[in-house]
Amino acid sequence: MSLTLAKVEEIAPDQSSLSAARKLLNPRSWPVIAGSDAGLVWGECQGSGSQPYRVVISETDLGYKCTCPSRKFPCKHALALMWMRAEGRAIDKQPQPDWVNDWLGRRRGPGAARSAPDKAEAKAKVSIDAALEQESPAPDPKAQARAAAQRERNRAEREAAILAGVEELDLWILDQLERGLAGFQSVAREQCGLAARRLVDAKASGLASRIEQLPAALFGLPEALRTDFLIEKLGELHLIAEAYRRQAELPEALKTDLRLMVGWTMTREELLSEPQATRVRDRWMVLAATQEIQPDKLRRLETWLARLGEADGPRFAVLMDFVPVSVGAVGKTYSAGETLEAELVFYPSGAPLRAIIAEQFGSMTKEGHWQAPPDDVSGALDRYEASLSTRPWLSDWPIAIHNAVVARVTDGLVLSDSKAALPIKSKEDDALLPLVGVGGIDAFGVWDGRRLDLKFAETPLGRWLPG
Amino acid sequence: MLDAAAAETLTRSVMLGTARAAAPVQKAFGGLIAPDDPKAALKALALLGQHNRFRRPAGVAAASVESLFPDERAIVPEAARLLLLSLLSGKSGDPTDAVALAVADAMERRRLRLHPFDLARLEDFVKAHADQLGASAVAWTQRHATATTPDTYSFVETIDETNWMHGRPAQRAAFIRGLRATDAAHARALVEGVFASEQAPVRLVLVKALSENLSLADQPFLEGLAKDRAPTVREAAEGLLARLPGSPQAAKLLQECLSRIKRVSAGVLRRRTALQLEYPATVKEWQREAWAISTFGTIALDDFAKGLELSIDDVAAATAYDQILSTVLAVQASQSRRYDVLARLVREGLVYAWVAMVQADDIDILDPAAWSAAAIQPDLWREIPGAVMRLYAKLRAPLPAPTAEQLLASKAWLDLLGLAEQNMPDPLMFSTIATLVPQALRDALRKQLAPLSADLNARALAALSLLDIIEAA
């Protein structure tokens, strides 16, 4: 079956999807686009997330798959790819990448991919012509001014609400202090839930989420570490509250970082046009791709990248995306060990770490060996402390150590060199145990100030990844 | 600014509650926090928290860098790792099927071990086959053993008379079985030497290992086990005594067998003697074959013929009218290593006698190559029986090349291949055949499997590649 525009119309779920797909026909939206003789076309489309969405379509049976969280099937990305193909857009022939092969291996076959005819007939008539004819209405200056004024009012109201919210947060922390943190564990869930709800009402969703996650993090720690953890976390909340009240005195980058953490947002477009944002173009290797479900029912996807080249700027970056849990399982966009050349834009911060991909050059490759910077444990902690000094609410921080060894101590494992050691977060699957005693490893992990979550290691025995 | 004593006092205050033990803010921070600041406690908390965050972890004095999974064996080639993970991690197949067994056996033969980073991903495979996979795999399965549940047996890479008593039970049994073939009395003496101090499961495997090269010289030792504290050991010893030609137990079993055999006349034109087995009333019809094989299968073929006062040829002819009794005779031939008789019985009609032997847990195949050559005659098969999927587990070796060639050229196999897309047989059938085919015939099998869909041939083709890599390492 060859793709035609009529077919694309037929498969589109509604007119708005086609209209949205039309906006993606620009080749600039597709850093990667390729095809194979088997009738497969795939590409990577930069959406609103930090990472591009991976889209694959099968021309032969109109099967498709996209990593975006859209609930429309097919989504605008798949439709755009089909549209380009139907228009006869020239596409390079390339070997199928692993993620395409993976999709091919798991799909149920052509029959399952087709939409039911009844459903297709029942949906409203959609057409490409209509999508092409759609034009944005002419802007009305008065309406724009009204909207801007309204936005400003909303912003001022929110600012006031957050200030009231952080004031209330201080009172809440004081209450806990007066009662004593020794008894806090027994009421942590209830108390944190209460404080989080108040902060949501105060429109400080970032802070609310931070408090909501506190009990789970607390109970995930060994008993011996909980006292220090509580002191640090509650102290940090006051630090954030105080910093928010005095944000005018902060350096611009730290102020932006603070506001983002409290709950203000920065769209992709705003970040791309942010003059303060650090931009780094280099080759990057994916060291870890993780998913975690947050108490607010969002799935947080983190992709940890290490810079391989010689460009100036941060050595590590984390791409972060949030997808509603209700969307279901989300496939991995990236796998550890993949490398890409890209320009990353970092969110402003005293210690830049979170970033988005502004532009990707070429497609992902799998070759490459990661070599940790020449830091020993002490050097890595120096870097961590330097970052902590410039960003006092620093939580997870990437740590890389060259020529280390995983060793056993009485109460667990440590990553060590000859002079110092970092406790390693234990894993239930014991995948870490075979690393014990393997010398000369280049290790990467995420340090939370107490324990290292080891995520990647190049060793004389080959690459180690968590189980 | 904040010394250790002040930090500790502050910590105690915030833990007990500032209402009960006021935070000594002034003392801890001097003039940094105003005494009348209503948020003094909060500021002290924040500073204490930040102070703690700059505290570095303790040193490494007591750290041990000794590997938890030491192993002298070489690691499998890198090319084998992905195949191992795809075949045996449990995601796309059973990590205990024939492929898993064949891979474990091949790794044992080539003295290879798994890559240590794959131990966790191949957990079920490692658990099932640790004894073949080497010291690191055994250590992996014992990683959670505690002082209260110690596993006292260690893996011995090269087992001999000096260290055999420290090996894993399966290793020890294999060592004794091997030694029995060359010096049965010495092997028995070794077993006798350690027997009293062993636990029941180990005593059991050691007794069973004596089945190799069994002779009347073993009788006193086996009779002494009638008083063993474990019923399983007593039963195993009695079983061996019953197989011992000339022993009272063997004579008793033979008598019991003969008492259940009825002589009748058969044939219309030419009357001849036919033998029929009679069953206890408690044995249901569907249990008869298994009961007869496990009860009388171990009787020596010569004793059985003598007891019936017939030649072996006459016994074969007389049992032909009773399918189950014929099968029992085939089992006796197999257990007595009379592979010529077994082959003749198969050619004369007991084409699927091997199925009963493969399915009987208490029947061992003593010489897999000779047994296969006699019992497996695929050119006589109408179809490939499902029991073929258990054949590798019984043999623990590929078929001899001529038998495997016969299998690949047989009508039953070619029909199975030809109608596979239509009938969709269990893919395990193809992957088991992959384990049964020796190295020299793997390319031929690959060609035969290639036209099948991936659902049917993927595991078999991957198994062939993996076995090639392991055997070439």
Please explain how this structure is put together.
- The complex is a heterodimer of chains A (467) and B (473).
- With 467 residues, chain A is α+β, with helices and mostly antiparallel strands.
- Chain A has four domains: 5-133, no CATH class; 141-260, no CATH class; 266-365, OB fold (Dihydrolipoamide Acetyltransferase, E2P); 377-464, OB fold (Dihydrolipoamide Acetyltransferase, E2P).
- Chain A has 15 helices and 15 strands.
- Chain A has helices at residues 5-11, 15-22, 76-86, 98-106, 110-113, 117-122, 128-133, 141-179, 184-201, 205-212, 214-219, 223-245, 252-262, 268-272, 377-390; strands at 32-35, 40-45, 53-58, 63-66, 279-293, 298-307, 316-324, 339-346, 354-365, 397-409, 412-416, 421-423, 441-447, 452-459, 462-464.
- In chain A, a hairpin with a 7-residue loop joins strand 8 (339-346) and strand 9 (354-365).
- In chain A, helix 2 crosses helix 3 (76-86) and helix 8 (141-179) crosses helix 12 (223-245).
- Among the domains of chain B are: 4-53; 152-244; 247-375, no CATH class.
- Chain B contains 27 helices and four strands.
- The mean pLDDT of chain B is 90.
For the CA atoms, what is the radius of gyration of chain A?
A: 25 Å
Oligomer: heterodimer
Strand order of the largest sheet of chain B: 1-2
What is the count of DSSP helices of chain A, taking H or I runs of 4+ residues?
15
Q: In sequence order, what are the helices and strands of chain A, one letter per element?
A: HHEEEEHHHHHHHHHHHHEEEEEHEEEEEE
Sheet with the most strands, sense and barrel status of chain A:
6 strands, antiparallel
Q: What's the total count of β strands of chain A?
A: 15
How many domains of chain A?
4
Q: Order of strands across the biggest sheet of chain A?
A: 12-11-10-13-14-15
- Can you tell me the residue ranges of chain B where pLDDT is under 50 for at least 5 consecutive residues? none
Q: Write down the overall mean pLDDT of chain A.
A: 87
Strand content of chain A: 15-25%
Which descriptor suits the 3D outline of chain B? Answer: elongated
Q: Helix fraction of chain B? A: 55-70%
Helical segment tally of chain B? 27
